[in-house]
């Protein structure tokens, strides 16, 4: 009998299959995560419009970026514990419903303060990643957990790329239909991801299960789970090694997702649509790069165990750091896109490699470990945002507007910030490489929660 027809974790991932509770849950989970990222970064490619209409300064833009990732830190820590206790199905459903509110309402902002508040609240949706990684971890056997986690994460992360590409088009569509002016189009465009979150809240509740053999409530798991899984995760130093590593890869990914549209607009003079497409390329790499990281990590893990996966992760971070340094140095749009693709590949593979390790840290605290490591990614993004805020250079440039009139425009240059960021990533990779020697006690991945 095929493993798909049983109530046990699957030993292989067939992404073209939708049979069985495991694969049905897998597909609904990554699709839900995809639209969570779509909603989270829906404003990124529309920021030039909001910046212009709300008269946002460089410092205010920096604060908005920090707000968009800071709320996720606390949310991921909390969600990890909640998922361990109540299961992913109910936790994800409520998360989607609650987060749809600020997504739908950000278009009502009339000031920097209200915009900042809604951007902060929207950041809570980033906790969806923890639920996604937990759910794929329990649906698949140890031999394929890395591949399953990375595939779900990669497919979901691509939502940010699609948002960067399509949100300017959605905004333009509202203008073309005569619904609103160009200046207000970003307000109406954000209604779309808000509605999508509500749709997937319904789908998640109706069509998924917490575990292959049923829901937590049916199995009585929530009543039996008395142990503090959060403290189990905190006490294991390997949790913190992965937290630092994830800050250097996923933290950078969030930064690029948020800053790339403005960076391409201000640095290379790209139009809103072109900048969105350029930034979207970075996000869409997730479709294959993050899964590839998980697949390679699983193969390395079979032969070299935890230490081999850790070495792979360190090397990917080093390559990423070098790529970011050269990305910040180029003045040619074509070269910048090429370099972004290269360091984006190593970065997203590092994301996948990190979460190929997460399920093996502690079998009783998968959700809490996933939450802490995931929060590390957002801590990294928040710190990087402070770096960009401090190192960004305000400049002016003569540009030709749509009417053909030359005018001086205020721009922001993030080149120095990208250079310093690359150096920090390089150092992180070297540190993770050195720590590899301290995890020789874990030779082979052990059987974990199923």
UniProtKB/TrEMBL annotation:
GO molecular function: nitrate transmembrane transporter activity
Any one of the GO BP annotations: nitrate assimilation
Recorded topology in the membrane: Multi-pass membrane protein
SUPFAM superfamilies registered for this protein in UniProt: MFS general substrate transporter (SSF103473)
Residue stretches making up the Major facilitator superfamily (MFS) profile domain: 25-440
A Pfam family annotated for this UniProt entry: MFS_1
Highest taxon listed in the record's lineage: Bacteria
Compartments where located: Membrane
Keyword Transit peptide attached: no
One GO term describing the cellular component: membrane
Residue ranges crossing the lipid bilayer per the database entry: 28-50, 62-79, 91-110, 116-143, 155-179, 185-205, 240-264, 270-289, 310-329, 335-358, 365-388, 417-439
Main subcellular location of this protein, as a coarse class: membrane
Keyword annotations of the record: Membrane, Nitrate assimilation, Transmembrane, Transmembrane helix
Homology family: Belongs to the major facilitator superfamily. Nitrate/nitrite porter (TC 2.A.1.8) family.
Protein name from the UniProt record: MFS transporter
Organism from which the protein derives: Flavobacterium alvei
């Amino acid at each position: 009998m095929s493993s798909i027809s049983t109530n046990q974790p699957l030993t292989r991932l067939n992404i073209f299959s939708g049979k069985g509770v495991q694969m049905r849950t897998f597909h609904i989970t990554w699709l839900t995560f995809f639209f969570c990222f779509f909603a989270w970064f829906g404003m990124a490619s529309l920021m030039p419009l909001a910046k212009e209409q709300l008269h946002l300064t460089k410092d205010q833009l920096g604060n908005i970026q920090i707000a968009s990732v800071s709320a996720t830190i606390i949310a991921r820590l909390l969600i990890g514990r909640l998922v361990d206790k109540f299961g992913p199905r109910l936790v994800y459903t409520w998360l989607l419903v609650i987060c749809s509110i600020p997504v739908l309402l950000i278009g009502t902002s009339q000031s920097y303060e209200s915009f900042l508040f809604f951007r902060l609240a929207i950041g809570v949706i980033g906790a969806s990643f923890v639920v996604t990684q937990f759910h794929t971890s329990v649906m698949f056997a140890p031999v394929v957990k890395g591949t399953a986690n990375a595939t779900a994460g990669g497919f979901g992360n691509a939502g940010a790329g699609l948002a960067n590409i399509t949100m300017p088009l959605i905004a333009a569509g509202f203008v073309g239909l005569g619904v609103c002016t160009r200046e207000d189009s970003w307000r109406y465009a954000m209604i779309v991801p808000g509605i999508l979150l509500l749709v997937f809240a319904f789908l998640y509740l109706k069509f998924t299960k917490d575990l292959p053999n049923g829901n937590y409530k049916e199995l009585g798991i929530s009543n039996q789970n008395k142990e503090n899984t959060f403290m189990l995760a905190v006490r294991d130093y390997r949790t913190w090694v992965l937290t630092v590593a994830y800050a250097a890869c996923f933290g950078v990914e969030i930064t690029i997702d948020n800053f790339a549209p403005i960076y391409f607009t201000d640095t290379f003079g790209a139009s809103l649509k072109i900048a969105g497409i350029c930034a979207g390329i970075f996000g869409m790499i997730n479709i294959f790069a993050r899964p590839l990281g998980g697949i390679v990590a699983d193969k390395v893990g079979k032969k070299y165990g935890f230490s081999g996966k850790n070495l792979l992760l360190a090397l990917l971070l080093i390559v990423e750091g070098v790529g970011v340094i050269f990305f910040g140095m180029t003045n040619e749009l074509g070269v910048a896109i090429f370099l972004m693709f290269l360091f984006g590949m190593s970065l997203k593979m590092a994301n996948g490699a990190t979460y190929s390790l997460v399920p093996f840290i502690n079998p009783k605290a998968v959700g809490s470990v996933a939450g802490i490591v995931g929060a590390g990614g957002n801590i990294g993004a928040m710190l990087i945002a402070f770096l960009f805020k401090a190192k960004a250079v305000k400049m002016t440039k003569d540009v030709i507007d749509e009417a053909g009139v030359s005018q001086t425009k205020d721009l922001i240059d993030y080149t120095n910030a990208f250079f310093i960021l690359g150096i920090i990533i390089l150092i992180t990779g070297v540190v993770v490489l050195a720590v590899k020697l301290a995890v020789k006690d874990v030779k082979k991945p052990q059987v974990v929660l199923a």
